[in-house]
Every structure is written in structure tokens, then in C-alpha cells.
């Protein structure tokens, strides 16, 4: 990034597992992308497990909403965040 230009969020080509979203978030915030992926996966898996355990069925609609929001969050970022064009040399 050149001096004086604002920091931009991009999907990364070189640090991706699916769409490069979490790799880009990691680079933007200076955090290891695996940490972001791990937290996302943990919250998603725990949300799914809570839905599968019958004792929590009273709050199932909230958990369904959490699952949908988590998945939609990733898809929207994948669509809206541009791919970084200068990753080829890394």
C-alpha cells in the first residue's frame, strides 16, 4: 500500500481456503486468518449443535437465525469485497 492511501479490505488470492474472505480480513486487521476461521467455525458448529440438542428447542429460532446470519455474512463479503489484484507475486 502506498503512503497516503486508505487501507482497503480485499479478498486474498494467496491466503484462501474458500473465497479469500477471512484471509483478507486477517491481513486488514493484522490478525492470523486461521484465528478468524477458527472462531467462525467454532461459533457456527456450536450453533448447529445447539439446534440438534432437544433441550434447547425453545431458542431454536434464534439459533437458526444465528446460523443463517453467519453463512449470509460470509457469502455477502465474498460477493461484495473485491479480490486483490496484486497478490500474484506473493
Write the SSE topology:
Elements: H1 21-29, H2 33-52, H3 60-80
Helix pairs in contact: 1-2, 2-3
Keywords:
single chain; 90 residues; mainly alpha; 3 helices; 0% strand
Number of helices: 3
Proportion of β residues?
A: under 5%
Residues in helix, % = 55-70%
Helix-strand category: mainly alpha
Describe the sheet with the most strands: none
Average pLDDT value? 80
Shape: elongated
- Rg, rounded, reads 16 Å
Count of extended strands: 0
Low-confidence stretches: none
**Termini separation (Å)?**
14 Å
Helix and strand pattern: HHH
Summarize the structure.
By secondary structure, the chain is an all-alpha fold. Helices cover 56% and strands 0% of the residues. The chain is built from three helices and no strands.
Explain the overall architecture:
It contains three helices and no strands. With 90 residues, the chain is mainly alpha-helical. It has a domain of 60 residues. The longest helix is centred in the C-terminal third of the chain and has 21 residues. It is elongated and about 55 Å long. The chain starts with 20 loop residues before the first helix and ends in a 10-residue tail after the last helix.
